[in-house]
Amino acid sequence: MSRRLKLAVQNATAATALPTRAQLKAWAEAALQPGVKQAELTLRLVDAPEGQTLNREYRGKDYATNVLTFTFDDLPDIPGLPLMGDLVLCAPVVEQEAQEQDKPVLAHYCHLVVHGVLHLQGYDHQQEDEAQAMEALEAQIVTALGYDDPYRSDKES
């Protein structure tokens, strides 16, 4: 694996069904697109109160959500500057969603890390065409990492 990703992991949760640092790094690195030469990311695993506070303060939504992505959009456009940002994963929400969606918790963590890292690179899902492109890329990356297509239930219905 290349050394193009510097990853800091912060564990601020009481949850025990967590991916390892090596898994988190592999998933994040797999989501980096070819044009990204270097990336510096912080991935923070939190409990519901912190997840809810962050979602309320930064998105105006008063509930804990699965993943929050914080980009450093205010950095100058300097050639060679690495991709930088933070991902916050709310462990209880991830675990609950995995159970509700009948998928392994690690598969759901993988999908959400990939999803968040793609957001850091400018991918979005606000418009239908953007959502389709982002979901297709997520599915490609997640399945290449050995997990089922995270949108499989959407495609079966």
Automatic annotation (TrEMBL):
PANTHER family: ENDORIBONUCLEASE YBEY, CHLOROPLASTIC. Belongs to the endoribonuclease YbeY family. It is found in: Cytoplasm. Its cofactor is Zn(2+). Binds 1 zinc ion. PROSITE patterns: UPF0054. It is an enzyme of class 3 (hydrolase). Its main location: cytoplasm. This is Endoribonuclease YbeY. Keywords: Cytoplasm, Endonuclease, Hydrolase, Metal-binding, Nuclease, Ribosome biogenesis, rRNA processing, Zinc. Single strand-specific metallo-endoribonuclease involved in late-stage 70S ribosome quality control and in maturation of the 3' terminus of the 16S rRNA. It holds the Pfam family YbeY. SUPFAM superfamilies: Metalloproteases ('zincins'), catalytic domain (SSF55486). Its EC number is 3.1.-.-. Zn(2+) binds at residues 115, 119, 125. The keyword Protein transport does not apply. NCBIfam families: rRNA maturation RNase YbeY (TIGR00043).
